[in-house]
Design a protein that fits this description.
180 residues, mainly alpha
Length: 180
C-alpha cells in the first residue's frame, strides 16, 4: 500500500517576510517626518563641522595675513552653503518651534497693548466686555476669563473716576498753596 506524506511548506520565504516587515517599519517611521529635510539639516551641520576641523588644521601654521584670508574664504563658503540649503533648514522642526514661540510672544505683546488700551478707553473696555459676555453665553469662555475682564473694567472705571493729576498740576497746586 502506498502512503503519502503531506509536509506543509511555506509559500513565502521567512527571510523575504522579515525584509517586508522591516521595510514597512521604515516606511512607517519616515511617514512621521517631512522626508529628507531633517537628514539634510544634519548633513549640513556635519559638513560644517568637518570643514571647520580641516580648516583649523590647515591654517594652524600660517602667518597672520594668510590666516585672515583663509578664514574670510572659509566664512564666505559657509555662508554660501547655508544659503544653498536654507529652505531645508528653515522647514526643520527647530525652526518651526522657534517660529511658533515668536508668534506666541507677538500675540502676548499685542494682547498686552490691547488690554492697556482697554484700561484707558471705556469704549474699548465696553466692547471687550460685550464680546466676553457673548462668548460666555455661548459657553466658549471659562468663568475665570470673564472675571478677569470684569475686574479690569472695574479697575479702569475707578482709575478714571479718581484721575491722577499730572506732575504739572500737582506742582501748581503745591506751589499755589504756599502763597495763600
Amino acid at each position: 500500500m502506498t502512503s503519502f506524506v503531506h509536509v506543509d511548506q511555506p509559500t513565502v520565504h521567512p527571510g523575504v517576510r522579515r525584509a517586508e516587515v522591516l521595510f514597512e517599519q521604515i516606511q512607517a517611521a519616515r511617514a512621521g517626518t517631512e522626508g529628507a529635510r531633517p537628514l539634510i539639516a544634519l548633513f549640513i551641520v556635519a559638513i560644517a563641522a568637518a570643514v571647520l576641523v580641516v580648516a583649523d588644521t590647515l591654517v594652524s601654521n600660517w602667518n597672520e595675513g594668510a590666516l585672515l584670508a583663509a578664514w574670510t574664504i572659509f566664512c564666505l563658503a559657509a555662508i554660501a552653503l547655508f544659503a544653498l540649503f536654507a529652505s531645508s533648514v528653515r522647514k526643520s522642526s527647530i525652526a518651526g518651534l522657534w517660529q511658533a514661540a515668536a508668534e506666541r510672544r507677538a500675540a502676548a505683546r499685542a494682547d498686552a497693548r490691547f488690554m492697556e488700551t482697554a484700561k484707558n478707553d471705556p469704549r474699548v473696555m465696553q466692547e471687550l466686555q460685550a464680546a466676553v459676555w457673548r462668548q460666555q453665553s455661548e459657553g466658549t469662555v471659562p468663568a475665570a476669563a470673564v472675571a478677569k475682564i470684569d475686574a479690569l473694567a472695574r479697575m479702569s472705571t475707578r482709575s478714571q473716576e479718581a484721575r491722577m493729576p499730572t506732575l504739572y498740576e500737582a506742582m501748581r497746586r503745591m506751589n499755589s498753596s504756599r502763597y495763600y
